[in-house]
Design goal:
2 domains, binds 1,4-dihydronicotinamide adenine dinucleotide, alanine dehydrogenase activity, binds pyruvic acid, Rossmann fold, Alanine dehydrogenase, alpha/beta, NAD(P)-bd_dom_sf, binds magnesium ion, oxidoreductase, nucleotide-binding, 371 residues
Length: 371
C-alpha cells in the first residue's frame, strides 16, 4: 500500500505520524512510504533519516494527500486537509469528532475511511491508542497548572508543594482514568494535597490501593464536585465518555464559589471539555480568565513534548497501522477493537456516540463496510 505522512499543521504541533523506526517497519512489510519534507523536524528526524529507511520524500503535503492510499497523522485534519481527502483513502489519526461538527461534515463530504485513534479499544476495556497521549497530558497538566498558578501568570500565587510550616496547594482531579492517575502521580510528587473524583467505584478502589491513602478519593456527584472545587487551587478536568461530548461538571455558576486565581486545566477539552466555561486554546496562547479563574485548555498538550509523545504514540499505533496497510479494510472486519476505531466511512458516521452527539444517522461499522 502507498502510506503517506504529511507534516502536522495545527498550532505548535510538533509531533509526526510516523517515526523513522515505524516507517522502516512499513517498508519491511512491502509498503511504499512517502513523508512530507520536514515532517520529522520536531522530533529531530531529518528527511535523510526517513530516506535511509527506504521512505520517499515529498516536497508538499498535496503530493502526499494525492498519492497515499492511507494517511497516517497525529491531529485531526484541518480544513485545508479535509479538502484533499477522498473516498477509498484510509485516514488513521486522532479525530475527536463529537464536539467538531465542521470537521465531521468535511470528512463525510470527502468519503474518506476515518479510523480514530481515540476510539480503538483493547480486550481490557481500555483505549490503547489514546492511553499514551493521556499519560503525557496527565503528567503535563500538573506542570502547566503549577506554572499558571504563579502570580505573574495570572494565578493565585500558590506553590503546590508548600514549604515547611505552610500548607501545600490543593489539587482536585475530576476523572481518575489514565490522565487522572498520571496527574495524581505528578501532583503527589510535588507534595500537593490531592483529591481524585470518579463515577467508577472500582476505579476509585484501584486508585486508593495504588496510592496507599496518599490521595483522597470521592465519588463524583455534583455535590462532591462543588465541595472539592471550592477549596482547590488547581482543578484538572480528566473525564471521558468514549467518543462522546464531555459532560460539563463544573458550571459557570460554580466559578463564583472558587478561590480567586485558582486554575482549571481542562485536559478533556478535545472532547468538548468538562468545565462549562472552557474553550480550546493553543500552545501560543494557552490560558484565559473567566470570573477570576484561570483556564488552560490546550487541545494538543502532548505536542509540546514531541520527542516523548511521538515515540510513545508510534509504539501504540504501529501494530494497528501495519494491519491496516497489510490488509486494508479487511483489517477492520478481522479485529473488533480496530473496527471500534472506524468513525466515518464513505460518508456514513459509524461511531454511535459521535452520531448521537451530532444528531447524525448512525450506521453500524460492520454494515457500512459491507456496502
Ligand atoms: N488535551 C489534550 O492534549 C489531551 C486530551 N486527552 C483527553 O483527556 C480525556 C481523558 O482521557 P483518559 O484519561 O485517557 O480517559 P479514561 O477513559 O482513562 O478516563 C476517564 C475517566 O473519567 C471517568 N468519568 C466518567 N464520567 C465521570 C464523571 N461524571 N465524574 C468523574 N469521572 C468520570 C471515567 O470513569 C474514567 O475513569 C479524554 O477526553 C482525552 O481525549 C488525552 C490526551 C491529550
Ligand atoms: C489525544 C490528543 O488529542 C492529543 O494527543 O493531542
Ligand atoms: Mg487533543
Amino acid at each position: 500500500m502507498r502510506v503517506g505522512c504529511p507534516k502536522e499543521i495545527k498550532n505548535h504541533e510538533y509531533r509526526v505520524g510516523l517515526t523513522p523506526a515505524a516507517a522502516r517497519e512499513y517498508v519491511a512489510h512491502g509498503h511504499q512510504v512517502m513523508i512530507e519534507s520536514g515532517a520529522g523536524a520536531g522530533i529531530d528526524a531529518s528527511d535523510e533519516d526517513y530516506a535511509a529507511v527506504g521512505a520517499s520524500i515529498a516536497a508538499t503535503a498535496e503530493e502526499v494527500f494525492a498519492a497515499a492510499e492511507m494517511i497516517v497523522k497525529v491531529k485531526e485534519p484541518q480544513p485545508s486537509e479535509w479538502a484533499q481527502l477522498k473516498q477509498g483513502q484510509i485516514l488513521y489519526t486522532y479525530l475527536h469528532l463529537a464536539p467538531d461538527p465542521k470537521q465531521t461534515e468535511g470528512l463525510i463530504a470527502s468519503g474518506v475511511t476515518g479510523v480514530a485513534y481515540e476510539t480503538v479499544t483493547d480486550a481490557h476495556g481500555g483505549l490503547p491508542l489514546l492511553a499514551p497521549m493521556s499519560e503525557v497530558a496527565g503528567r503535563l497538566s500538573v506542570q502547566a497548572g503549577a506554572r499558571a498558578l504563579e502570580k505573574a501568570c495570572g494565578g493565585r500565587g500558590v506553590l503546590l508543594g508548600g514549604v515547611a510550616g505552610v500548607a501545600s496547594g490543593r489539587v482536585a482531579i475530576i476523572g481518575g482514568g489514565v490522565v487522572g492517575k498520571q496527574a495524581a502521580k505528578m501532583a503527589l510528587g510535588l507534595g500537593a494535597d490531592v483529591t481524585i473524583l470518579d463515577r467508577s467505584i472500582s476505579r476509585l478502589r484501584d486508585l486508593d490501593d495504588l496510592f496507599e491513602g496518599r490521595v483522597k478519593t470521592a465519588f463524583s456527584t455534583p455535590t462532591a464536585v462543588e465541595e472539592t472545587v471550592f477549596t482547590a487551587d488547581l482543578v484538572i478536568g480528566a473525564v471521558l465518555i468514549p467518543g462522546a461530548t464531555t459532560p460539563k461538571l463544573v458550571t459557570r455558576e460554580m466559578l463564583s464559589g472558587m478561590k480567586k486565581g485558582a486554575v482549571l486545566v481542562d485536559v478533556a477539552i478535545d472532547q468538548g471539555g468538562c468545565f462549562e466555561t472552557s474553550h480550546a486554546t493553543t500552545h501560543a496562547e494557552p490560558t484565559f480568565e473567566v470570573e477570576g479563574i484561570v483556564h488552560y485548555c490546550v487541545a494538543n498538550m502532548p505536542g509540546a513534548v514531541p520527542i516523548t509523545s511521538t515515540n510513545a504514540l508510534n509504539n501504540a499505533t504501529l501494530p494497528f497501522g501495519l494491519a491496516l496497510a497489510d490488509r486494508g479494510l479487511a483489517a477492520l472486519t478481522a479485529d473488533p477493537h480496530l473496527l471500534a476505531g472506524l468513525n466515518v466511512h464513505r460518508g456514513k458516521v459509524t461511531n454511535r456516540a459521535v452520531a448521537e452527539a451530532l444528531g447524525k444517522p448512525f450506521v453500524d461499522a460492520a454494515e457500512a463496510l459491507k456496502a
